[in-house]
Amino acid sequence: MVLTDEERKAKKREYSQRPEVKARAKARQQKxxxxxxxxxKQASPExxxxxxxxxxRPEVKARxxxxxxxxxxKTRRKELRRRPExxxxxxxxxxRPExxxxxxxTARKSRSRPEAKARAKAYQSxxxxxxxxxxxxxxxxxxxxxxxxxKLSKSNIPCCNCCGLNRHIHFLxxxxxxxxxxxxxxxxxxxxxxxxxxxxxxxxxxxxxxNFPKGFQILCHNCNNAKGFYGKCPMENKPH
Length: 240
Known about the structure:
66% of the residues lie in helices and 4% in strands. The protein is mainly α.
């Protein structure tokens, strides 16, 4: 009995889907010599060109697009992402300096596109966004004030670490103990991504993300300005 091409392909597909056949194929693929052979073959210029040409075909693109939107694909991707070895691998890759730099550059390019800027501007101009954003900033700022006040001033209420002012929350500021620019040279902070160019809210988010690093304190604006002018505040340890 002579089979047609379609029948032959269908029979081959049916055979390759058998559990025992899949298990044997997987075992072969896991062998180091086979892995190396596949990588070497895939890396050759002619195979890369052939792969590129194949993926550019309209029917292949349509097939891939249909598969990538299917429930089966999404479920499989979700299951793969949740595997412990894949989570650990992703963390290791994300922590590499070159990948961090690439991610930042990609995000910067994406944000700089005219359509992205227009979308961001339209979204940020919404009243509900402004209200939500202000509430989030206030909550984040309060967490930082409370932590450093509790840590350095032993106070449950946010207060100035110099004069003890605690009656006006909005009159308190985050202070760089060693100096804003001087902290650019501290290895521990540099490793965490600190920069003296950070704006206030960006700095607060950075502090929260890095679990409240050392080097900061809470001062009222009077003590903060006096420290900047004289190097030391004359109101230190003297209550208002």
